[in-house]
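RETRY 2/3 - previous attempt timed out on the joint model. Re-submitting the same 635-residue input unchanged.
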Amino acid sequence: MANEAADSPSATSADHQARPGLPPGNLVVKCTNCKEILIAREWEKNLKVCSRCNYHFKLSAYERIELLVDPGSFVEMDTNIVSADPLNFVSRTKDEVQAYSKKLEDERKKVGLNEAVVIGHATIVEFPLALAIMDFRFIGGSMGSAAGEKITRAIELGIERRIPVLIASASGGARMQEGLYSLMQMAKTSVALAKLGEAKIPYFSLLTDPTTGGVTASFAMLGDVIFAEPGALVCFTGPRVIEQFMHVKPPEINSEFVLLHGMIDAVVHRRDLRQTLAQLLRLYSPRTLQEAYPQTNSQIQAAKRTGESDGLRPGI
Amino acid sequence: MAYDLEFEKPLAELEKKIIALQRKGDRLKPDEHRQLEEEERELHRRTEEIYKNLSSWETVQVARHKDRPYSADYIHLICEDFFELHGDRSFSDDHALIAGPAKLGNEHIMLICHQKGRDMKEKQFRNLGMPHPEGYRKAGRLMQQAEKFGFPIMCLIDTPGAFPGLADEERGQSEAIAANLYLMSHLRVPIIATVIGEGGSGGALAISIADRILMLEHSIYTVAMPEASASIMWRDKVYAPQAAEAMRISAKELKALDLIDELIPEPLGGAHHNYRLTADNLKAVLLKHLYELKPLPVDELLERRYEKYRSIGKFGILT
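RETRY 2/3 succeeded.
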């Protein structure tokens, strides 16, 4: 579970600027990877991808949702679920004494999110799906009880409505401050995914920079289809720990590395993500409409229209 | 010497005195005889006192004690007819994880256990009890076999964690762990997991999705070893004792949080003071839980297992 993504250098400099709503007057952005100076407006237009080295900057959960789903279709759920402090955890070092509950409060104010994951439902080219999108800014996207509960609820929404589930991971791993509770969230989310699998509902797992530790070793690697943004750190053990342990500098353990070793299905550029998801939703939809969306007629009609208008596959 | 941990120093001194007196044997004078008895009582009293109030960090040291019984010791003491099976059928055999069918009492079971090594050579052979992906895949293969033949699964957990190597990343450490979490959630036989020493991170979790989670009294179960947690949270391993305290990793604390089902008592001074007694306690508790689980209809067993994990976690609701 040990990983260092949460405090690696990549979590600083440009990621400050990756936050939504650039401070006024900030006209340029320095690429975290190649140090190229990029014009902020063009960089944003380029979906926060470096035009020189193709480095994919981290996105906030809401930026990613905007990127992926049909405009205005996202309905957020359970915004009021927050981390508690089940262990009354107090961080005591020689420099500071800080209660976890205080850290949570600070983090909520600083990031403007209640937890490290945003969940809800939306449509992509009118295909409904349940979403859980992680946000690295909130304590390194780490998974504690609240994040585990929200992800589980997104999975359960998929089961309840019989709609596919997408989880976009961005996480340093388990949240240490919740001790064994956080380890058990790996179990909880995986057990829920087994139920989803039993219901034969597809689950798509999107790995973004970074996907490490306990998140990788649970739901991130359990997708029916697993795909990653280019250059994302994807590992169980982070490179710094491997280096300490093996005394050799490891190669980059990223999306391309795990693709090469057969652990994921595809590496997809950010600009193609929405299209890829649309194609997957189409391909993995059950053959009969009733089976797919046993809800209202209008939804069935909407789904039918999409299938036809795309013109790529006959019906869905 | 039986007492060799830092916090056991006063016990070690007492023990030294006792041994010196015992050496005299028949030449013991009457007052020395009384002294010996007194010292023995004192040792017992002090040990009880110290072990009743072990800090989390002290528990870590007991859980890692070099003489603490490992899985193979327990198997030898509580099971009959253990036949070790090897290999994941795709890449290799992992010596940090031993598995195979055995008899516990009158029950046929499948054992899945971490195994540490005692001397340098065996430590290396067992890779310090840190499994590679093929270890989890071997476990997964044999758990499926257990389901096929209706053998209840018993896991003994004793690992600092999954092995943090580059080759492990190449061979899909994450996938191997995740696949077991998924698999164990719906295996149609009872599963009982017992932490006997160190229960470390994903390496431990990968064979411990179970209907019952038990822990020996002086074992630990944690999201990451205190050293690793300290370096993640505070970038410095020297804070490991603080991390151990703050994360509440001892069996006693986890029982109080209701994260585990039962704590199995150890003999005074820890399991390494009396293998036989610890093993007997372990066997009795394992059989008790097995007899509770066995009569359950499979669907109910699975529903309860699902509920058990579904309900783990403490969060708040903002109003």
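The longest strand of chain A covers residues 203-211. Closing ticket.
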